[in-house]
Amino acid sequence: MRITWYGHSAFKLEFGEVGILLDPFITGSGYRGDMNEVTRGVTHILLTHGHGDHVGDTVQIAKQTGATLVSSFEVVSWLNGQGVEKVEPMNTGGSIQLPGFTVTLVQAFHSSGELVNGVFAQLGHPNGIIVEAPGQPTVYHLGDTGLFSDMKLIQELYQPKIGFVPIGDRFTMGARTAAYAVNNFLDLETVVPCHYATFGLLAPNADDFIRQVTKAKTKIVVPEKGVAFEA
């Protein structure tokens, strides 16, 4: 599996004929690369929740690529109304089989919505996302979340090997709680910290998180934006 981080919580997964963008907040994340490289080969867009710093460039990318959007019923209905044609609605706890992989939405402790004409519109529940594919390591994108002990149950059920873990604090777990999750509730081989350094309100780097992760088997990868790595 080829993985690319574009800053904030935006990732691309590539394997076989599949190209998945997760939470593609690209143009606002500080990424300065070629958007054509980001969108090349994209078949699906997966969104954890409806905040603007996760929905990001979804509408533009979906229209350009014809990618299928997968998210909660409320989020896909909202974006379908903005011109995203191919949608797969889901909700927390459900799984769907797509060409080449399976998506499961799991719980996250956060919120989900967007300002519409000055009023905050609720857009369903926030989620984490599990991506399972034959012959590939299972990926768990935690989305935006606080710490919760049922992360251990998610680990037992789906056995993810790769985790995208928010560490920025204030709006999600910070270094202390994110490291606690990795050390005590998850059994990941590779962790990529995310949701930090994008805005001044977030942790400026991953240093505190890295220092507090003590599980020997877990490798922490802090990639450069737009530079892919294999997992």
Automatic annotation (TrEMBL):
Domain Metallo-beta-lactamase: 7-195
This protein's name: UPF0173 metal-dependent hydrolase ACFPFW_14170
Lineage of the organism: Bacteria, Pseudomonadati, Pseudomonadota, Alphaproteobacteria, Hyphomicrobiales
Pfam families named in the record: Lactamase_B_2 (PF12706)
Gene Ontology molecular function, alphabetical: hydrolase activity
UniProt keyword annotations, A-Z: Hydrolase
SUPFAM superfamilies hit by this protein: Metallo-hydrolase/oxidoreductase
Family of the protein in this entry: Belongs to the UPF0173 family.
